[in-house]
C-alpha cells in the first residue's frame, strides 16, 4: 500500500500499476517481494523502508515548510493495497520545502497500523505524503496517526473512498487540503530509505514527523474494514544513521 517518489506507485489504474501482483502476506508477501519479478529486486536492498527509529542522532537539520493548498478531489483510488489520493497536475496539491530543496506533492496514502516504529512503538495508522523534486529526487513524509478525535480531512476522504479496487475517481464538488493531515509541530526524524512497497526503489529521503495526529477509532475501523493490515515489517538499518531535528 503504499514515508517515496520516482516511480510513484499507483498513478495508473489499479492492477495496471504493477505488472507482477504482490501482497502483504503469504507467498507474495514482503519476504518474497524481491523474488517475484526482476523489477522488484531492490526490495532486497540495503537501504529499505520502513524502519524502527531508535538512537536518532540530533543535528542541525534544515527547517521544514509545507506549502499545501486545497484542490478538487479528482484522483481518489482504492488501488488494491490502500486508499490513495493522486495529484497529476503540476503543483495542484502544493509543495514541501526543506531548506533550499523544493518537492511537489504527488500523492498520499494510508497504512494500518503504522509502518514506522519509534523506539519500538507502532502507531494506529500512518499517512505517507509523497513528493518529487524537479531533479527527480523523492521525499516521503510520514505522519503518525493515533486514536483520538476525528480528523476532518480524513472524514472528507472516507466519505467518498471506493469500497472496492478500481480506477481513479473524481468526486465532484469536494476539495481536500492535505494540510489537515499535518501536526502543528514540525520536528522530525530523517533518514535515507526506499519506497515501502514494490518496486522498493531506494534513494528516498524520509521525514518522519515526531508529533502524531489524531484520527477517531471509527475512522480507523472504517479503513480496517478494507485493509486491516497493509504494512511492510521494519527493515534493518544496515549502518544507516537516523537524524533528529533540534
Describe this entry's structure for a reader.
The structure is a single chain. With 246 residues, this protein is mainly beta. The protein contains three helices and 17 strands. The strands form three sheets. Strands 2, 3, 5, 6, 7, 8, 11, 12, 14, 15, 16 and 17 form a twelve-stranded mixed β-sheet that branches. A three-stranded mixed β-sheet has the order 1-9-10, with no helix packed on it. Strands 4-13 form a two-stranded antiparallel sheet. A hairpin with a 4-residue loop joins β5 and β6 (83-86). The chain is globular.
What is the topology?
Layout: H1 33-36, E1 52-53, E2 57-59, E3 64-68, E4 71-72, E5 76-78, E6 83-86, E7 94-98, E8 101-111, E9 117-118, E10 121-122, E11 125-133, E12 138-147, H2 152-158, E13 175-176, E14 188-194, E15 202-209, E16 213-215, H3 217-224, E17 243-245
Parallel strand pairs: 1-9, 2-17, 12-15, 12-16
Antiparallel strand pairs: 3-7, 4-13, 5-6, 6-8, 7-8, 8-11, 9-10, 11-12, 14-15, 14-17
Ranges where pLDDT stays below 50 over 5 or more residues in a row are 1-16
Helix-and-strand structural type: mainly beta
* Strand coverage percent: 25-35%
Order of helices and strands: HEEEEEEEEEEEEHEEEEHE
Tally of DSSP β-strands = 17
Query: Which term fits the overall shape?
Result: globular
Q: How far is it from the N-terminal to the C-terminal residue, by CA?
A: 31 Å
Global mean pLDDT: 92
Largest sheet, if any? 12 strands, mixed
Number of helices: 3
Radius of gyration over alpha carbons? 17 Å
Helix content: under 10%
Amino acid at each position: 500500500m503504499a514515508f517515496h517518489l520516482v516511480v510513484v506507485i499507483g498513478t495508473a489504474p489499479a492492477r495496471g500499476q504493477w505488472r507482477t501482483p504482490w501482497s502483504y502476506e503469504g507467498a507474495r508477501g514482503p519476504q518474497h517481494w524481491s523474488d517475484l519479478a526482476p523489477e522488484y529486486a531492490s526490495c532486497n536492498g540495503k537501504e529499505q523502508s520502513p524502519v524502527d527509529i531508535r538512537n536518532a542522532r540530533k543535528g542541525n537539520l534544515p527547517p521544514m515548510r509545507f506549502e499545501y493548498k486545497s484542490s478538487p478531489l479528482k484522483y481518489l483510488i482504492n488501488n488494491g493495497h490502500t486508499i490513495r489520493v493522486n495529484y497529476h497536475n503540476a503543483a495542484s496539491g502544493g509543495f514541501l520545502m526543506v531548506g533550499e530543496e523544493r518537492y511537489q506533492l504527488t500523492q498520499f496514502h494510508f497504512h494500518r497500523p503504522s509502518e514506522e516504529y519509534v523506539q519500538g512503538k507502532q502507531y494506529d495508522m500512518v499517512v505517507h505524503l509523497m513528493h518529487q523534486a524537479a531533479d527527480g529526487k523523492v521525499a516521503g513524509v510520514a505522519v503518525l496517526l493515533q486514536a483520538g478525535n476525528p480528523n476532518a480531512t480524513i472524514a472528507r476522504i472516507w466519505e467518498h473512498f471506493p469500497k472496492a479496487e478500481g480506477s481513479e475517481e473524481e468526486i465532484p464538488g469536494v476539495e481536500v487540503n492535505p494540510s489537515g493531515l499535518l501536526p502543528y509541530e514540525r520536528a522530525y526524524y530523517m533518514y535515507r530509505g526506499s519506497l515501502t512497497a514494490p518496486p522498493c526503489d531506494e534513494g528516498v529521503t524520509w521525514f518522519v514527523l515526531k508529533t502524531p495526529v489524531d484520527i477517531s477509532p471509527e475512522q480507523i475501523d472504517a479503513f480496517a474494514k478494507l485493509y486491516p493490515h497493509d504494512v511492510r515489517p521494519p527493515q534493518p538499518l544496515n549502518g544507516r544513521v537516523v537524524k533528529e531535528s533540534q
